[in-house]
Amino acid sequence: MILFQSDYTEGACPEIMERLLATNMEQTPGYSEDVHCMRAAELIQKACNAPDSKVHFLVGGTQTNMTVIGAALRPYQGVLSAETGHIHVHETGAVESLGYKVLALPAVDGKIQAEQIDEACTLHKNDASFEHMVQPKMVYLSQPTELGTLYTKKELEEIRTVCDKHELYLFIDGARLGYGLVAGGNDVDLEALAKLTDVFYIGGTKVGALFGEAVVIKHPALQKDFRYMIKQKGGMLAKGRLLGVQFETLFENGLYMEVSKHAIRLADKLREALIQKEYSFFVENTTNQIFPIMEDTKLEELKENFGFCYQTRIDENHSAVRFCTSWATKEENVDALIAAL
Amino acid sequence: MILFQSDYTEGACPEIMERLLATNMEQTPGYSEDVHCMRAAELIQKACNAPDSKVHFLVGGTQTNMTVIGAALRPYQGVLSAETGHIHVHETGAVESLGYKVLALPAVDGKIQAEQIDEACTLHKNDASFEHMVQPKMVYLSQPTELGTLYTKKELEEIRTVCDKHELYLFIDGARLGYGLVAGGNDVDLEALAKLTDVFYIGGTKVGALFGEAVVIKHPALQKDFRYMIKQKGGMLAKGRLLGVQFETLFENGLYMEVSKHAIRLADKLREALIQKEYSFFVENTTNQIFPIMEDTKLEELKENFGFCYQTRIDENHSAVRFCTSWATKEENVDALIAAL
Amino acid sequence: MILFQSDYTEGACPEIMERLLATNMEQTPGYSEDVHCMRAAELIQKACNAPDSKVHFLVGGTQTNMTVIGAALRPYQGVLSAETGHIHVHETGAVESLGYKVLALPAVDGKIQAEQIDEACTLHKNDASFEHMVQPKMVYLSQPTELGTLYTKKELEEIRTVCDKHELYLFIDGARLGYGLVAGGNDVDLEALAKLTDVFYIGGTKVGALFGEAVVIKHPALQKDFRYMIKQKGGMLAKGRLLGVQFETLFENGLYMEVSKHAIRLADKLREALIQKEYSFFVENTTNQIFPIMEDTKLEELKENFGFCYQTRIDENHSAVRFCTSWATKEENVDALIAAL
Amino acid sequence: MILFQSDYTEGACPEIMERLLATNMEQTPGYSEDVHCMRAAELIQKACNAPDSKVHFLVGGTQTNMTVIGAALRPYQGVLSAETGHIHVHETGAVESLGYKVLALPAVDGKIQAEQIDEACTLHKNDASFEHMVQPKMVYLSQPTELGTLYTKKELEEIRTVCDKHELYLFIDGARLGYGLVAGGNDVDLEALAKLTDVFYIGGTKVGALFGEAVVIKHPALQKDFRYMIKQKGGMLAKGRLLGVQFETLFENGLYMEVSKHAIRLADKLREALIQKEYSFFVENTTNQIFPIMEDTKLEELKENFGFCYQTRIDENHSAVRFCTSWATKEENVDALIAAL
After folding, report:
1. FRET partner for A94 with CA separation of 20 to 30 A, picked from B43, B115, C248, C341?
2. Size of interface A-D (CB pairs under 8 A)
3. Of all helices (H) and strands (E), which one includes residue A321?
C-alpha cells in the first residue's frame, strides 16, 4: 500500500533525524529557552528579513491557530475566515472553545478576497445593532489554502489595505507554506509575508520536520506575553529544543526550500500525467495537493494499492479525491500511481 | 413619534404592574425560591400539561439561550441553527463565548427543516475526520422565527424524529411565543411544544412582562443542576420573586394569551392595510412582526413620525423594514400608521 | 415570620415603584439607549464628580462582576481577591467560566491590604517560571466587604499606589455601597471611589431598587466596547429604561443616601442592643450586616419567628449568624427582634 | 555546566531514538490511528491489567491535564487539588481557561488526604447557597507529587472511597510516574492505579521519551468522545505514531521501569551524600527530586558549575533548592556534585 492521503505519513527528513541524534544528550534548559531555539529564531528572522519580529515554536497547527487567535482577540471579537478554512471546519471548534466566533465568508477555490472583508466590516459598522453582533477583528487566511491554491501578492496587498482600513489583524496559516513558496506561479515570498501580515507561521510538520510550526509575530500587541499564551493553551513543549533543532536544520542551508521543491516536482509530474489522461480537477492549483475528479469504479480499483483522501461527491458516478506529495514522497511511488491511473 | 420598531418599547401590562405593587413589601427568600415562583411554575406546568417538567425563570433571552445551551453541550459539541437564528447573528457570540460552535444551516423564511438536520448529522458521522469537526448535539429553533414565521406541528414532529435518530436535543426559543400561539394558522400549542422539545421557553419580555423568560425543561439530563448554570451565567435574579409574580399574573387567568391576541389583531389590521395598498413583503407571516418592502422615499417620509426597523436593501430604490405590534400597541397608533402609508 | 436574612427580601422603595408606574407606557428605544438611562448616567457622573467616566447599567452583581472582569483581562491574566471575596466563593465560578483565575489572598475581616498585593505581584515577576503562572492584572475589592467591613481612604490610596506600580486595574464591587457610604466611620465617598478606582459599581438591588447595578468606568481601556461585553454576557436588558428610571429616582434627590441611612440607623440600633446584651461578634463593622455569635439553643428559638443566615460554627455550642437590615426594614421588626434576644 | 534543574534537560533514551530512526520512513495514517499507537496501547493496558481501559497519547502534561479535566466536568463543576498542585500553580491557568475552577486544598508535603476531600464535599452539600458555589466533581492528585512525595496505597484507597461517596472522578497526574513506581517504599503499582482511579497518565516526557504522556481512561463516561477533546484542545499530533513508537519502546521490555530505576539509584546516592553532609531537607521523599536546604553562600558557589532550581527562602541565610536526576543523569555528574557539596 502506497499512501498519498496526506503530507504527514512519514517521520522527518534525514538531516533532521541526524541532528536530533547528534544533539540528543546535550543538556539544555526547557521550554524553548535554549540555544537551538534562539538560533532557529534568528535564522527565520533573517529569512523573512524581519529583525523586529518575534519567532516562537509550537508543536502543531491547530494549537498554533488557537494560540495566535486567542492572543489577538477580545471576547466579543471574531475572526473572518473562508468557509473552507481549517479553523472553521477541521479543528473541532478549537477557536470557539476559546470563546471566539469564526465569521465564515463564502470562498472561491478556498480563497476570500479583500472586497468581502471590506463588506463584512462595513456592514457591521453600519448596523444599528452592531453591539449585538460579533466585531470582526482578524482575518485568517491559509497559504496555500485547504484546496492548494495560492494568494497572489496583489491579493494579499489588497487584503492588507482593507485590514488597515478596519483595524484588523492579518494572520496567515502556513501549515504547508514551503509547498506554496516554491510552487509554480507563486510571487509571495517569506519577506512579503512578514511585511504584509501581523503574524503568520511556517509549517514544519508537513514540510520535513517530525513536528513543529514557527510563528513569526510582527505586530507588537501580539508579541506581548505570547509565551504565557503558549503555556496556557498547552503548547509549551518541555523539551523545546526539539523544535529549535528542527527549524535550525531546515533554515540554516535552505533545506526547507529544497524539500519543498522535491514535493512540488513530484506533484507537477502527477498533475501532468492526470492532465494527459484527461482527468478534470475539482480545483486547479500548483502546490502539493492534487484534486482530480475520478469515476467511482476507478477509485475502488486504486484503493487496493493506494491511499488517498475522499474529498466530495461530484455526480452519481464521480467523486473528487485528494492526492498529496511531500518532502518524503518517492518518485517510484508516483510512477506506480501514474501507471495505475 | 410613534414607535413600531420592536415589541419592547413599553413597560408591562397593567395587571403585572398592579401585582408588583401589591406584593412589593412582602418578605420572601431570594433567588426564585419563593411562593410566587413556585406557583408560577405550577401554572406553567399545567398550561403545558407537563407535570414532570422543571420550570425556571430568567431575565432575558440571550441569557436564557446561553444558559440552556451551556447546560446541554459537551465542549466539542455544537448547536444547529438557522443562519438567521438569534444565537448566530444577534447575541454578540454569547454561545461561542461559552466555547460552543453554532452550526449554521441555510434557512428559508427563517426556518430550517428536518432533512437539513438529518443531512448535517449524517455527513458528520460519515466523515473520516469526524473527530476533527464539531459534533452536532442540539437543534435550536425559534417559534416564531426571527422573521415572524411559524413551524407547523408536522414540521416539528419531523424534526423531533430526526433529533431522536441522531440523539440531538431540541430547544425552542420562544421569546415571542405568545404571538405565535395565537397567530392565524398556528397549530402548535404549549402542550405540543412540551411534548416535542427537550426544552423551550415562554417569552415574557416581549409579551406583557417587564422582563422574564420561563424555561420549561423536559429532558432529565438538562434538569439536573440547572440552577448552578443560571447562577454561573449571571442569570440568578436576587429578587427572583419579581419573575414569579409576573408569570403568575400572566398564567393564572389566561392573560398571556389575551395580550398576545391584542398584538395579533392589530398586526393583522396593519398587514391587511399594507396588502390593500399593494405593498409586497420581504417574508409573509401571521405574527406580530411585519416586513413590508417600501420605497426609500416613502421610508424617509414615515421616519419623521414613526419608528421602525431597517431590515435590508431590496433594490436601488426599495428596502424591507420591520413594524412590530405588541401587547401595548394602541389601535389609534396603528390607524395613524395606516393613514400615513 | 420576620426576615433579616438578607437585604433583598422586599421589592423596591415606593418612590421607585411610583416612577416605574408613571413611565410604564412611555415608548422608548431598548437596550439602555433611552433618555432615562442617559439622565441617570449624568446624575451618577455628577455624584461622583467624574464627567469623563462612562456609566452602564446591569441587572445583577454576579453579571456585573463577570462583565467587568471579562472586559479587563487577557486570557492569561487573573484577578486578585480576598479569599472571602464574592467572586471567589459565591458566584459558582462565573469568573473562571470566562477563563480567568481568581488569585485568592488571605483576608482579615474580609479585607486585603496593599502589601499583600505588592508581594503577590513581586513574587510573580521574580519567579523564573513566571510565564507558567497566571499574571495578576486586576484587584477586586468589595466596599463594604462580604463581612460588612469598610476600607478606609488611606487603605484604598495605598492599594491604588500598588496598582499603579504593577499596572493593575482596581475594581470595587459596591453591591451594598450605599450602606458603606453612610456607615459610621466611613471616609470614602463616591468621589474618592471614582478617583481611586478604574471601575466600580453602585449597587441598586440591595439598596432600594428592584434590581440594578450602575457601573462607573474610569479607565479608557475598559470603557471601549463595553456594551458588546454586556450583550455577550447576557446582561443587556431589553427594556433598559427600567434601570435608567430606577437610578434616576435614586440619584436625583439623594434618595440613595436616604434609604441607606434608614438601614444603618436600624442596624446601629440592633448592634447596640446586642452589645448591651453582651453578645460578642464574629466580625465588627458599622454597616448593615451584623454577625453576632449566639448559643445554638438561642438560635433554635429565634428561628421560629425570625429569618437569618447561618454563617459559621464557632464552638460546640455557639455559631455566628448574620442579620441584615435594609432600606425596607421596619423599625417594629427590629424592636421585635431585640425583644426576642 | 552540569544541569540538575529538571528531568527534561536531555532528549530521549537511545532505544527510543533508534526506534524513531528505524521507523522514520514507514508510511502510516496520522492522528494516532496507526499500528504503533495501537500496539503501545495494548502494552499499556496489559501492564496495568486493565483490558477495558482506553489509552490515548498526548504530547505534554499541561495539555493532558486540561484535556482530561475538560472531558470530565460540567461548566459549574470544579476539581479539588492540593494548593501546590501543578494545575493550580504552574499551568498559567489552563484549567480556568477552559472555564473550570481549581478548588485548592491545603497540602502537607504536596499531598491532600481523604478527610479533606470529604469535608469539602460535605460543606458544599450542606451549604444553603450550594448552587452559588462551584460543585466539586473531580480530585486531581500527582504521583509523585510536585514535592516528590508519594501517596500510599492505603491513602489512595481512602481517597477512592470518598470519591465514590461523593460521586467524584479521581484523576492522577503521573508526569513523573516512573520515578514513583520504582522509588523506595512505594506500594502503588500500575495495576493499583488503574484499579483505584478513573483516569491517570503515565509520563513519558520526563521518563525517557522525547515527549509524550499516555492517558489511561477507566471510566466509560470519560472514554466517550475523548478524541474530539484531544483535537479541540490542540493535542492531536499529526504524526501520532511518534507517540506510539516511543511508548511501544518503553513498554515492550520493561524499559520504562529500567530507566526510572537508574534515576532513582542516582537520586538515592545524592540524597545519601546530602544526609551524610548533614543537610536538612525542605521535604523528605524517595523519588528523583531532592529538596535540600542550603546556605545561600554555598548556593552561589554551586551555581558556577551546576544548574538547579530555586525553591523557596527558608531564612535569612538559607534557601531550599531542587536537584533532579533522570533517566539521562550521568553518574560522574552526580559524583561531581557530591564532591562540590
Report:
1. B115
2. 146
3. strand A318-324
